């Protein structure tokens, strides 16, 4: 029997994966909860409540008449992009009266997805303004609802008055692969923006 066997015979434990935080934002009924649920590898945490008559004056369902619930705090999900890279997803509430939660959710975020609906494009203006003011990198993802008009990405960019470097993608929030492409775009854009900021800081 051999005693005192070298540690080299033991398998090294794998390093803990890098964890990143991404927000999923946009107007009321744009598909934030759907996107988080489609891509999350765990059962998503949801804080949805039924829409009530009391909320009708402030929660416009024009264009999303079939919507019966709303997020009142946040959605939470997780996705492993690579063995060493895990994303935590936080879906923000879309109504103005829940915006006090945004600052808490935004702390430590690498970047964000701003979901847009071409039927109510103006509903994502507030989210875009929020991330621009705080210098949080974001990707605009146009959720292609059934029956909604579809426009080229450049047309959407012009309508939202976005800077040239902001990615604009068409997606289907119900489909996992489509949602993953959006999240990968956010990570890549955020890393490019971070590298650019470091380069400017050195010059």
Q: Could you explain the architecture of this structure?
A:
The protein is an alpha/beta fold and 203 residues long. The chain is built from 5 helices and 8 strands. The chain has helices at 32-39, 102-106, 125-133, 153-160, 176-202, and strands at residues 18-26, 48-50, 69-71, 75-82, 85-91, 111-116, 138-143, 168-171. Helix 1 packs across helix 5 (176-202). The longest helix has 27 residues, at 176-202.
Strands, total number? 8
User: What fraction of residues sit in β-strands?
Assistant: 15-25%
Oligomer: single chain
What series of H and E elements makes up the topology? EHEEEEHEHEHEH
SSE topology:
Layout: E1 18-26, H1 32-39, E2 48-50, E3 69-71, E4 75-82, E5 85-91, H2 102-106, E6 111-116, H3 125-133, E7 138-143, H4 153-160, E8 168-171, H5 176-202
Parallel strand pairs: 1-5, 1-6, 6-7, 7-8
Antiparallel strand pairs: 2-3, 4-5
Helix pairs in contact: 1-5
Please give a quick description of this structure.
It contains 5 helices and 8 strands. It has helices at residues 32-39, 102-106, 125-133, 153-160, 176-202; strands at 18-26, 48-50, 69-71, 75-82, 85-91, 111-116, 138-143, 168-171.
């Amino acid at each position: 029997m051999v005693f005192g066997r070298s540690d080299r015979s033991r398998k090294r434990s794998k390093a803990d994966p890098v964890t990143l935080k991404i927000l999923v934002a946009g107007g009321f009924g744009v598909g934030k909860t759907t996107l988080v649920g489609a891509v999350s590898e765990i059962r998503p945490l949801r804080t949805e409540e039924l829409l009530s008559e009391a909320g009708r004056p402030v929660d416009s369902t024009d264009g999303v008449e079939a919507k019966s619930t709303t997020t009142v705090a946040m959605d939470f999900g997780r996705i492993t992009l690579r063995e060493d890279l895990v994303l935590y997803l936080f879906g923000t509430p879309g109504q103005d009266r829940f915006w006090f939660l945004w600052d808490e959710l935004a702390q430590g975020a690498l970047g964000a997805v701003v979901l847009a609906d071409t039927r109510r494009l103006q509903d994502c203006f507030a989210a875009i303004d929020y991330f621009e003011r705080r210098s949080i990198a974001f990707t605009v993802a146009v959720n292609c609802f059934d029956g909604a008009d579809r426009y080229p990405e450049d047309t959407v960019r012009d309508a939202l008055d976005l800077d040239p470097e902001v990615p604009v993608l068409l997606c289907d929030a119900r489909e996992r692969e489509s949602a993953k492409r959006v999240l990968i775009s956010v990570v890549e854009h955020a890393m490019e923006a971070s590298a650019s900021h470091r380069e400017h800081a050195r010059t």
